[in-house]
């Protein structure tokens, strides 16, 4: 069981995209945030940014399929803090936002370092966030409704991004630093032991090819 889980974790981490993420601006409904995290995990996103003005980690529900266990969620109280973090990582920001200059979500390049910004369920992206974005993207709607639910829109856009990245071979070789993969593997395989070692400020032990370590 451990060996099978170890190999599965190695395969998942080998496809993680460290230069691809999303930003959720005050998405306050737990089922929406949970569904967004599930999609992120599915396309190889390992780190997500959220803006929650009230602070704290937003809650989840069963929609996530436990995806929150596999995603690093960083929460900011302000848009400016989140924007600064994303830009420091060299990412372009595409805001899912209906505006006069918005372009079809399929007509932008997601193979570049990219963060996609989604607004909350009621207002969408705020004016401040729209102003800070490098480009606005939309999902063309051919019916009477103007937009999709935020979690559905996230899935539509991220799977287009996955397609572009797959076509450029960005999932074929591991893109995370080997040391990051080792660290994450141990934390996922042995969460309790990892927590104790971190508390004692001790290094994680090396794992063998079966995912085991000497105790």
Secondary structure elements and pairings:
Blueprint: H1 2-13, E1 20-25, H2 30-43, E2 47-51, E3 72-76, H3 79-88, E4 92-96, E5 103-104, E6 114-118, H4 127-132, E7 135-138, H5 150-167, H6 178-189, H7 191-199
Parallel strand pairs: 1-2, 1-6, 2-3, 4-6, 4-7, 5-7
Helix pairs in contact: 1-6, 2-5, 6-7
Question: Could you characterize the architecture of this molecule?
Answer:
There is one protein chain. With about 220 residues, this protein is of the alpha/beta class. It has two domains: about 60 residues, no CATH class; about 150 residues, 3-Layer(aba) Sandwich (Alpha/beta knot). Helix content is about 40%, strand content about 15%. The chain contains seven helices and seven strands. Strands 3-2-1-6-4-7-5 form a seven-stranded parallel beta sheet, with helices on both faces. Strand 1, helix 2 and strand 2 form a beta-alpha-beta unit. Helix 2 packs parallel to helix 5. The radius of gyration is 18 Å and the shape is globular. It starts with a helix and ends in a 16-residue tail after the last helix.
User: What proportion of the residues form beta strands (DSSP E)?
Assistant: 5-15%
Named at the architecture level, the CATH assignment of the largest domain is 3-Layer(aba) Sandwich
Give the number of DSSP strands: 7
Shape: globular
Q: Please report the first level of CATH classification, the CATH class of the largest domain.
A: Alpha Beta
Overall average pLDDT: 92
Q: Give the SSE order as H and E letters.
A: HEHEEHEEEHEHHH
Spell out the CATH superfamily of the largest domain.
SPOUT methyltransferase, trefoil knot domain
CATH topology of the largest domain: Alpha/beta knot
Helix content: 25-40%
Output the radius of gyration.
18 Å
Could you list the spans in which at least 5 consecutive residues all have pLDDT below 50? Answer: none
Q: Which sequence of strands runs across the widest sheet?
A: 3-2-1-6-4-7-5
Tally of individual domains: 2
Question: Total number of helical segments?
Answer: 7
